[in-house]
Amino acid sequence: MTNLNQRQPQFTEVAEAYDALMSGVPYRRWVDYIEKLLRRLRVSPRTVLDIACGTGNVTFALADRGYQVAGVDLSEPMLSVAREKAHQQGRDIPFAHGDMRTLSLPDRYDLAVCLYDSVNYLLTLEDVTQAFASAHRMLHPGGLYIFDVNTIYALRADLFTQRNLDPGARVRYDWRSSYDHETRICEVVMDFWVRENGSTKHFTEVHYERGYFLRELVDALTQVGFRTLAVYEAYTFHEPRLLSDRVYFVARKQRSRNGLDAAEMVDPCLDGI
Fold first, then answer.
1. Above pLDDT 90, what percent of the chain?
2. Longest dimension (CA), the chain
3. Which residue in 1, 62, 134, 203 has its CB near the most CB atoms, within 10 A?
4. pLDDT of residue 194
5. Would you call 251 exposed, middle or buried from its count of C-beta atoms within 10 A (0-12, 13-18, 19+)?
């Protein structure tokens, strides 16, 4: 399957306006939930890698909670915004350029997070497995990997078709999505109008996300040396349902092939989701 995302410019022109566009996104709520997951597991990580960090909103929220954080992203324009924000706020947070499938950062971390359906941007199971292996390399033995995905239900339910054409908004947008049931790929054509210095700039980005059966993701995690500790409907401690639109995974890098108690393994019913 061709990686369509590699052929389309994404998170480039929109980078300067991204924070305005996403001003309503509850980043701190996400971090609240991550900390609830950590407390539930009775772990206290000190160092955190934010994979696919974008403009750093989750990275900064984690830093505000006292974690030693670093961010990595594929988009240089998004990283440029993150670095400028860190500079303006006097924060010493490293932001590195990197592909989540082939990370080669010098440090290792207690926790890696990858949020806002970034894993869905990987359009083959091979790419997903490479990304999981890459996250595995970035962790200390026993480290945790927490990520979320849009479910197949979410992608086929047309949730990405949305618009805000309010003439008073700094960023106006019109998004139109279509879903291919055979490939499980959702194409989203995104038109943006950004008002800046008295003029309006229009541009278009095309984004692709693929839906994965949750069992596929658990199997890929196991293949690269993770143990899946939990799979939850987003922001809850409930097992995913057929109509769940976002799901969180919690996995641990095994200290050795037999180094963890099998009782840690959570095996929810994931059939058909």
1. 82
2. 63
3. 62
4. 93
5. buried
